[in-house]
Amino acid sequence: PRCSTTATVQVNVLSSNTPPVCEPSSLAVTLPYTTTVGSVFLELNAVDPDMGSDGHLTYSYFNFRSPFLQNVSPFTLMESNQTAYLQLSSALRGLSNSSFSSYDASLMVGVTDSARRPRS
Q1: What is the mean pLDDT of the chain?
Q2: What's the pLDDT tens digit per position in 29-77?
Q3: Of 23, 83, 99, 120, most Cβ neighbours within 10 A?
Q4: How far apart are CA 71 and CA 40, in angstroms?
């Protein structure tokens, strides 16, 4: 007669979460002082090779800095179909009574995917 045996095998499937990539990774935008409130002045696209819900992207911005706007951001971040848009949400004030012809404001936009950490 034939003989047989069984073995119990535990298989752990690990997620291969790949971080999203935003190209280019650094941008410079020039806005005229007279830019109309509500104007969309930047479109950002990131790509995440993860499939399914792990590839859903969420955008956020932070570290807004401007010596003329007292850290009050005149920008709104909107999202649609994996693309983010920066919109001017308030007037660019602060130049009309100054001797400056321009000023710099900087911000960082973050992109996060929806992948969850693997359970242990």
Answers
A1: 77
A2: 888 878 889 999 888 888 888 877 778 888 888 756 666 555 567 788 8
A3: 83
A4: 20
Identify any residues that bridge with 61 across adjacent strands, giving them in sequence order: 109
Sequence-ordered strand ranges (E) for the chain:
21-22, 40-47, 57-65, 75-80, 83-88, 106-113
Structure tokens, 76:
């709104």
The 8-class DSSP code of residue 100 comes to -
112 forms beta bridges with 58
Question: Who contacts 29 (Cβ-Cβ below 8 Å, separation ≥6)?
Answer: 41, 42
Q: Is 58 left (phi over 0), alpha (psi -120 to 50) or beta?
A: beta
For the purposes of burial, counting CB atoms within 10 Å of the CB of 55, is it exposed (0-12), middle (13-18) or buried (19 or more)?
Answer: middle
Sequence-separated (6 or more) residues with CB below 8 Å from residue 79: 58, 59, 85
pTM of the model: 0.66
